[in-house]
Amino acid sequence: MFKKNMSTYNLTSFFSLVMCLALTLNACSGSAPTAAATQPEPAPIKAAATTIPTQLPASATALPTKPAAIATSAPKGPVAPPEFTLTVKTDNMFAPARLPAGLVRINSYNFELDWHTTIIRRINDDVKLDDFATAFKKDPVSTMPMTSYLGGPDVPGGTILAGYYTLTPGTFIIVDNSNDPWRFSSFQVAGTANQAAAPQADISVIEKEYSFDMPKSIPSGIHLWKFTNQGKALHNVAIVRLNQGKTIKDLITFVKDSQGKPPYEYLAGWNFLSPGVTSWGEVDLQPGEYMIVDAAPDFATGDGLNAEKGMYAAFTVTP
User: Fold this and answer.
1) CA 100 to mean position of chain CA atoms
2) How far apart are CA 261 and CA 11, in angstroms?
3) Bridge partners of residue 238, in order along the sequence
4) 151 vs 43, 76, 164, 263, CA distance in Å?
5) Residue 212: CB atoms within 10 Å
6) Residue-wise DSSP of 38-50
7) C-alpha angle 67/73/75, rounded to 5°?
8) How far apart are CA 220 and CA 283, in angstroms?
9) Rounded Cα gap, residues 147 and 132, in angstroms
10) What CA–CA distance (Å, rounded) separates 194 from 101?
11) What's the CA gap between 161 and 107, in Å, rounded?
12) Which uninterrupted H or E stretch holds 142?
């Protein structure tokens, strides 16, 4: 994940995790993340220095006084999935305490100007929430094997992005690692799965070792994307626009070394998916030339980055 900085885009939230993982999965152990409460008024979490991408979307030049309209990407079918809202801020997170099993729509609402990350994870059945919280506070990256991943968007400031996820009974968390300390909010899923119809996606992206299967040309604007991991290990998505004269090799070098100015502009991301998982999310892109990249470590072999092995693709966004 790329970590954001007020003046330069060192790495956005999407690649901050990548850097931690690439550096022996220990680089983040110095932070002391805090678990956000799931009640309506959680205790404030100490805010760290805010972060911001190199170029803020035009829609985020001022904080909204009320939630912006959400794109009308509701699934077409006899039953629509139940809808919930997650609110993310620098100092706290608000999530429903309980959600039903089955397909649900979660609207990630970012109150602020800074980017925030919403990573949906399910805690393994043999892991207790208290044990997860203790490990997360000590070293967030160490908790990766304790959960499965359902994706989730990086959300620009002043924006709502919808995502669709299939939930099974158990304990879930939503992680925001956009700044330090990392934090999470938990919720419970119970009951019999609903019969909601799957959303009708405009764009489909299939992730596997080591490629993306997706259209080479897509229309501009906000669309619902379907993300499916058909690989054997975790994969994620970063959508970037390379700076003039820069190549994917420059991006890979920067992700590994984080030296100098970033050779790209970060536009959107869909966080880790476990093998066999599908989820859907809204992505808003303007006309231009883009790259889709998975610059996470190669969890399948433990050697290098996925992007080094060809897991990237160019595509065009048309007017």
Assistant:
1) 22
2) 10
3) 269, 293
4) 26, 22, 10, 25
5) 20
6) SSSSPPPPPP---
7) 125
8) 10
9) 9
10) 6
11) 6
12) none
Residue type, 65: T
For the chain, domains (ranges, CATH) are: 13-318 (2.60.40.420)
Looking at residue 28, its amino acid is C
Please answer whether residues 71 and 133 qualify as being in contact, where contact means their C-beta atoms are separated by less than 8 angstroms. no
Whole-prediction pTM? 0.80
DSSP string spanning 234-295?
-EEEEEEEEPTT--HHHHHHHHHH--SS-SEEEEEEEEEE-TT-EEEEEEEE-SEEEEEE--
Alpha carbon distance 224, 212 (integer Å): 17
Write the CB contacts of 69 (distance below 8 Å, at least 6 apart in sequence). none
pLDDT tens, per residue, the chain with 319 residues: 454 432 333 344 445 455 455 444 434 444 444 455 444 443 333 333 333 343 433 333 333 444 444 444 554 546 899 999 999 998 889 999 999 999 999 999 999 999 999 999 999 999 999 999 999 999 999 999 999 999 999 999 999 999 999 999 999 999 999 989 999 999 999 999 999 999 999 999 999 999 999 999 999 999 999 999 999 999 999 999 999 999 999 999 999 988 899 999 999 999 999 999 999 999 999 999 999 999 999 999 999 999 999 999 999 999 9
Helix (H) or strand (E) holding 20: helix 13-22
- Residues 258 and 271 sit within 8 Å (Cβ to Cβ): no
